[in-house]
Inverse folding.
């Protein structure tokens, strides 16, 4: 099936292109990337280098190159570097003639493949076949197979090894770089780098096998930050030579001896061989898809889009350690490989019901960074835990005071993401409560969750202000999800989420009193929590201002005074731009004094807090949607989700398509700006798509320990099928015109209640139940 | 004595220039102006018109030309228009040759005079002598004498009458303009205009006498918004002709029948004649100076500067009605003829001790506009009285949302003077308390003061926020006196003034309980005031956050986080300007993120609230003074005042000179900007000079019903002498090296306690006491 953007799919499990577009290497490099939550390797060609945004981004390698530069993950030296000269001419996608071409991504097992037939100035066509994957069976392992076939006799030379000439967005992260030749044979090579800030040692090791019937002459060379094998050989017409490269990247933040570890991994891999490694990797993916796949019948494009987004939500999420999901995942260094609120509100919900242990790890990461959040709160004059807007290793704030530059004046802009966007803290309580609901994991609450919820409530207690004359608590000077409006009061989203967070902190406090009094006593002592403070939370909860829908219009004002701002559409407003790349928001962008939203704000509230009628959703959707500019990739999926809940099917379908194709169809307007790389996978949108389908189109909600469904499938979809994990029970849910089918796994520990249109049935282990549409 | 800026003085009672600088007509037009609190007539030449900023600005004529334009006072038609042609050539300061020239201002009686000897292309020199004054004996009266003398025979023609071609900063204020010839003879002419917004009828009437021995042929003409007499005559060598013009401006906001009233005034004036009118006017000034003069021996320049500033503080202050003192007074339309906080904090203190009835009128004006302040509070979601930042007739806010324009982008800047600069309200309580202290006027408190103080306290009650966790009330999102920093929390100035205002509201409440229980009962009912609300004020008073001096550095932070801003001097900061006319403040001006102040802020606090030791003053002066850019004319006088109190004599002297010469030496950097007139008298600086001398150099303070002095006279001053009025007692105070002499008037109602260096004496009526310096 032909898709947009030169892409095709045959089964909905893969996508491929047969046209190479050199203008799109930033986005295709992301879309075709491989990854395993530990590392991401961009979907570039083996012959490329930094100039073409080849990158291998590795978790937990945060570094600040120099004071004032952004902290970010490292692009590590590239072990899959592979330069080919044919009859003295460098083989390149950008010169000579490409006679045939295909680049494909097999989502079923995260396998990249490329086949190019290239014709140089002299001699006949050369075909290269490249396959690579980042192993899920051994996360430190990156494997590539590279096959060369010639149609006429040819003199070939290959330069392959480790390329340390990495590109980096925010400065040079390596204070030192050392090449080594190691192992049983001199074929095993390595490069050790040490980072500037923490002196993290990163070892990239690589070994290679060559299969073929021609003699190969190999010499080792070190040139300009590369350690290379130079291999020369002659191929006869029809001959092939196959190179298999086994690379491992290990660093001192993740393992105790990265040097020995990387060598051992590479040696083990070389001894195992490409095919066996791929088989083991494929088995891992089978297990992942068994709990994560979304199956759509009736629209192959939707099927592929669903899998593409789920796949990316998976490969960017560290499953091996308590580490964050980056806003661009491991697709590049943009957004610093750091967690934002997206992690809890966009990425995490999918894990709750597919791989809850990943959800737990994400929340444990937030527990590990609680001290960072405490430091941030203290620094800003608050108490408790004020989580970083941009959170890396320690949880200390990575977002700089001055982020954007005013293109009209060249002056830096003081944004307040790092000090006024307080909803990040209650967003985390939201996520931990969802996790607790989906898993019933009291152990987590005892160990981590209660303390986090208490410290977040404590933060809110120091952040609210009481308007004595109005007898209400308020939240002043906020930056809500709509980031074009900084410095607002009583942002509805923030108020409701804060209310939620206080409510859950108090609920957990009461549950701790009953279920874990000893731990509560310890915790109270550890964090100096008094009855008086808990009473204070209750008082805030009772009197926190919650803007209600207007009795006539049903509208909720996004923040105090929003309705008094200039009422203008985003398109008309856009005409006021002096420079198309102007920032629209604070302090004096064109949207600041207008009712124009960067992204969903009230709708975002509805996506999280389930207190509002469909009529309220519809009224507010009708008001805010035309005023939303969607300057954030977070916006379309929320619109799709709320549209399903508001009964606006056409809108839901339109925004689903928009959200699902942000990356695959390269819809993101800016991938490069002023020479800066801004590409990468919008991981939140990926997580959002799961929510649109499972929470939106299938109408999945949990109330009273029952899984409710209220499907509104898009017209082209004949059937929707997906697995759910709920409190250790594994289910497959099928929805179609006829109704709901739920299949429970034999080994489920218990019975699960499911409901369609409020009619409830219990599903016992190994059983299948059907509920027909009325 | 030669002064700066081409000026001279002989006695300290007058200043004059003998060099005409056409580049300076904006400022000299203000410096040489005449006025009487009802009207201001700029010190321009009779031959000039709108092009040269001739203007007659009249109180209480506020008008908005069209929606979106600024409300401002009208420049009324000019009745002193006087064009002269000599042998067919127009006499002009800008063409021909000026052989001799003097322009003088006699401050003793507010008399403008000019003498020019002009040489045209043909014929001999012509000398013109022009004198004018705005009568204090009859505020509606403006009088001019114009004498023409020729040295050779000449053919003269004169065009004189009323020129309706006025200039206006914010649009055309006259919807209609009608010329009339009236009176006993056709010589009396008038022009009636009606304003756009309120249809105010303004009549300008004028009559003239001609004295001389030559026949004059006169015809009446109406041309292009002028009603004119064309007069032709021949003068012989040595002949003079004297024209006396009597003009009256009356309007329907001030009198019931402005048409008849203006005619009657003019006729009466013409019958009285110039000399007698001047004598009556002079008597008024004698009475004014008897209670207001400042006499300095030892430095003639200081003497003149003191009188110049006191004079201007007087002539711009309406003494005939409850109307505000404009920030540029009646010198032009700039700042809309409206009251700002300057009125209470800079202009009013002089009146308290010189003409307390003027201070009362100013405060009664605030009482009259209480409803406007209530409307503003309500509109912004508060209670009580939130006074307008820019206050005209009704007290409704005249300051627009968008005032400045960003010169770099051409976009309007949303400033928040009109919503965050809340200190205006407590500033008014400050002034009314000072008035009450200086006069003991309980009647005023009963009628107006208590209600104002209560409504201001009520406003503060709705503006504070309680930080429950810190157990303190805070004031969030402020704009303090330092206007480069909008949107700050806990500005110390605003907190202390609010504390003061709450304290005085409670004090007045208690006094009302005792002294005027009946009126209190009525007032409580009228404004719906409960015991609970009064208790709430007490609670705020008890728990309002007041930033204290640091125990080591003695510094008080100007607002939360000020000390964390970039520490840079104003001069270094200035180098970052892209355009020299950039606004430095909100939202993204160069000072926003720097420790650079527009004007005194902490020092301003010290000028009003007397709670701090000289050591604290000195420490904070040392810190803040080098960081102050003095972008406001309010700043230097406060620096001088605090320097005296901090014992920094050199600084005091430097800033006194700076503050006192802002207008006279044309030190204001911008009088025209982008073609807009920004000139005018800085009336607050004028009022500030009185405070520097009387409160600062003489160390005058009132404690315990005793007038304390602690003089620190500038080195050149041998003696300082000034009158004080205190609770109906009139005193003359003399300070010199030997000590203090206080002379009490015979008709004083009581004894006054005076103190030098804490030694106290009582001064009975008619007595003189001496206290020697120890």
């Amino acid at each position: 099936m032909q898709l947009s953007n030169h892409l095709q799919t045959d089964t909905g499990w893969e996508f491929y292109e047969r046209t190479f577009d050199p203008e799109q290497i930033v986005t295709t490099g992301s879309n075709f990337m491989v990854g395993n939550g530990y590392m991401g390797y961009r979907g570039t060609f083996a012959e490329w280098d930094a100039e073409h945004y080849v990158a291998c981004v590795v978790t937990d390698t945060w570094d600040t190159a120099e004071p004032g530069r952004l902290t970010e993950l490292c692009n590590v030296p590239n072990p899959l570097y592979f330069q080919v000269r044919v009859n003295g001419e460098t083989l390149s996608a950008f010169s000579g003639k490409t006679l045939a071409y295909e680049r494909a991504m097999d989502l079923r097992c995260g396998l990249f493949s490329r086949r190019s037939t290239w014709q140089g100035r002299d001699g006949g066509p050369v075909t290269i076949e490249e396959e690579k994957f980042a192993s899920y069976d051994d996360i430190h392992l990156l494997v590539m197979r590279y096959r060369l076939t010639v149609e006429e006799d040819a003199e070939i030379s290959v330069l392959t090894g480790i390329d340390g000439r990495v590109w980096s967005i925010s400065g040079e992260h390596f204070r030192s770089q050392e090449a080594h030749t190691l192992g049983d044979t001199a074929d095993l090579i390595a490069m050790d780098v040490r980072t500037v800030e923490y002196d993290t040692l990163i070892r990239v090791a690589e070994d290679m096998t060559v299969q073929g019937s021609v003699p190969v002459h190999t010499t080792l060379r070190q040139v300009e930050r590369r350690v290379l094998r130079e291999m020369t050989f002659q191929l006869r017409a029809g001959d092939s030579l196959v190179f298999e490269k086994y690379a491992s990247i290990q660093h001192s933040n993740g393992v105790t001896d990265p040097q020995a570890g990387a060598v051992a991994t590479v040696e083990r891999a070389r001894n195992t061989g490409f095919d066996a490694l791929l088989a083991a990797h494929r088995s891992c993916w089978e297990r992942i898809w068994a709990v994560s796949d979304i199956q759509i019948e009736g629209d192959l494009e939707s099927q592929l889009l669903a899998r593409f987004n789920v796949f990316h939500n998976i490969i960017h999420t560290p499953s091996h350690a308590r580490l964050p999901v980056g806003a661009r995942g491991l697709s590049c260094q943009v957004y610093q490989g750091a967690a934002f609120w997206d992690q809890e509100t966009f990425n995490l919900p999918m894990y709750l019901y597919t791989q809850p242990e990943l959800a737990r790890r994400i929340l444990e990461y937030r527990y590990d960074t609680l001290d960072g959040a405490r430091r941030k709160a203290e620094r800003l004059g608050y108490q408790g835990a004020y989580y970083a807007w941009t959170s890396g290793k320690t949880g200390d704030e990575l977002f700089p005071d001055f982020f954007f530059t005013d293109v009209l004046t060249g002056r830096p802009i003081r944004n307040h993401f790092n000090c006024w966007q307080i909803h990040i803290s209650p967003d985390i309580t939201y996520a931990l409560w969802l996790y607790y609901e989906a898993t019933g994991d009291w152990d987590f609450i005892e160990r981590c969750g209660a303390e986090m919820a208490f410290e977040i409530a404590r933060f809110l207690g120091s952040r609210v202000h009481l308007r004595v004359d109005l007898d209400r608590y308020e939240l002043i000077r906020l930056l809500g999800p709509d980031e074009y409006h900084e410095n607002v009061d009583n942002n509805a989203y923030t108020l409701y989420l804060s209310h939620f967070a206080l409510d859950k902190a108090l609920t957990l406090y009461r549950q701790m009193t009953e279920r874990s009094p000893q731990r509560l006593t310890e915790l109270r002592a550890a964090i100096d929590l008094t009855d008086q403070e808990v009473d204070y939370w209750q008082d805030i909860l009772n009197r926190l201002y919650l803007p209600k829908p207007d009795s006539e219009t049903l509208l909720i004002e996004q923040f105090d005074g929003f309705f008094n701002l200039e009422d203008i559409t985003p398109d008309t407003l856009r005409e006021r731009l002096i420079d198309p790349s102007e920032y629209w928001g604070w302090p004096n962008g064109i949207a600041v004094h207008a009712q124009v939203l960067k992204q969903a704000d009230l709708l975002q509230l509805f996506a999280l807090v389930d207190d509002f009628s469909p009529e309220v959703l519809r009224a507010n959707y009708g008001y805010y949607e035309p005023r939303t500019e969607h300057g954030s990739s977070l916006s379309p999926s929320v619109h799709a989700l709320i549209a399903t809940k508001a009964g606006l099917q056409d809108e839901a379908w339109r925004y689903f398509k928009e959200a699902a194709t942000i990356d695959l169809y390269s819809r993101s307007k800016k991938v490069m700006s002023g020479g800066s790389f801004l590409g990468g996978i919008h991981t939140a949108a990926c997580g959002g798509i799961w929510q649109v389908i499972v929470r939106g189109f299938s109408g999945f909600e949990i109330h009273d320990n029952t899984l409710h469904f209220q499907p509104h499938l898009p017209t082209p979809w004949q059937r929707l099928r997906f697995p759910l994990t709920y409190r250790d029970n594994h289910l497959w849910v099928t929805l179609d015109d006829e109704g709901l089918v739920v299949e429970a796994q034999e080994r489920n520990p218990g019975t699960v209640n499911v409901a369609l249109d409020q009619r409830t049935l219990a599903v016992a282990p190994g059983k299948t139940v059907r509920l027909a549409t009325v």
In short: The radius of gyration of chain A is 27 Å. The CA atoms of residues 699 and 710 of chain A lie 4 Å apart. Chain A has 18 helices and 33 strands. Chain A has a mean pLDDT of 95.
